[in-house]
């Protein structure tokens, strides 16, 4: 005899059938990589909450049992800087299907760049003398070495970009337009 089975979750339920099957690991800017990542928000009473980095969330996903059906890494709104690449492939075992998503679409920014701080006016008189007088007081500098940036890559390798107010800046060059001839080398 044929039969029909209909499952109707309560109307106020916020968990769908597909979400209930997933193991969810939470990432938040106020998280801690020593935590398990199973809680959406920090809970100081239990000393647990979301992890702080996407890399740690991927590591936790790789540690799950092989029979885990699916993993979702849910990233809370905020800005996240990657200090190193996040490796998803090449783990000792196969990962279950993995989804990395924003908790609120459009509110998560992941950047492989670094935020530069400590901008100062140019103080070196020799450098200032090489600058046009009308711009000398508008030029700022910072020490990448003091910010812990020591690997600049190769000049031809790309990736050397500077953004200000979410706009790419033009890298310094000479001449500003056209080209120049070199008489002798």
Write up this protein.
The chain has three helices and nine strands. The protein is of the alpha/beta class and about 180 residues long. A three-stranded parallel beta sheet has the order 1-2-4, covered by helices on one side. Strands 3-5 form a two-stranded parallel ribbon. A two-stranded antiparallel ribbon has the order 6-7.
Topology, please?
Blueprint: H1 17-20, E1 23-27, H2 54-62, E2 71-75, E3 78-81, E4 98-102, E5 108-111, E6 120-121, H3 125-130, E7 140-141, E8 163-164, E9 167-168
Parallel strand pairs: 1-2, 2-4, 3-5
Antiparallel strand pairs: 6-7, 8-9
Give a brief outline of the structure:
Helix content is 10%, strand content 17%. With 185 residues, it is an alpha/beta fold.
Using brief descriptors, characterize the structure shown:
2 domains; 185 residues; three-stranded parallel beta sheet; 17% strand; two-stranded parallel sheet; 10% helix; alpha/beta
Tally of alpha and pi helices: 3
- What order do the helices and strands follow? HEHEEEEEHEEE
Strand content: 15-25%
- Main beta-sheet strand count, sense and barrel state: 3 strands, parallel
Average of per-residue pLDDT values: 82
Poorly predicted runs of 5 or more residues: 1-19
Strand order of the largest sheet: 1-2-4
Count of distinct strands: 9
Based on Cα principal axes, name the global outline: elongated
Radius of gyration: 25 Å
Going by helix content, strand content and strand pairing, the class is alpha/beta
Cα end-to-end separation: 93 Å
């Amino acid at each position: 005899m044929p039969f029909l089975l209909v499952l109707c979750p309560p109307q106020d339920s916020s968990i769908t059938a597909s979400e209930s099957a997933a193991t969810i690991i939470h990432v938040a800017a106020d998280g801690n990589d020593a935590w398990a990542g199973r809680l959406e928000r920090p809970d100081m009473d239990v000393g647990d909450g979301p992890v702080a980095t996407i890399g740690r969330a991927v590591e936790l996903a790789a540690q799950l049992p092989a029979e885990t059906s699916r993993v979702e890494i849910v990233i809370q709104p905020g800005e996240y800087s990657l200090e190193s690449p996040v490796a998803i492939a090449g783990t000792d075992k196969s990962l279950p299907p993995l989804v990395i998503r924003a908790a609120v679409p459009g509110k998560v920014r992941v950047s492989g760049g670094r935020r530069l701080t400590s901008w100062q006016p140019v103080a070196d008189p020799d450098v200032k003398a090489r600058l046009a007088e009308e711009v000398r007081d508008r030029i700022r500098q910072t020490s990448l070495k003091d910010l812990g940036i020591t690997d600049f890559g190769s000049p031809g390798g790309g990736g050397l970009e500077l953004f200000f107010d979410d706009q790419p800046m033009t890298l310094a060059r000479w001449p500003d337009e056209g080209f120049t001839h070199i008489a002798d080398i």
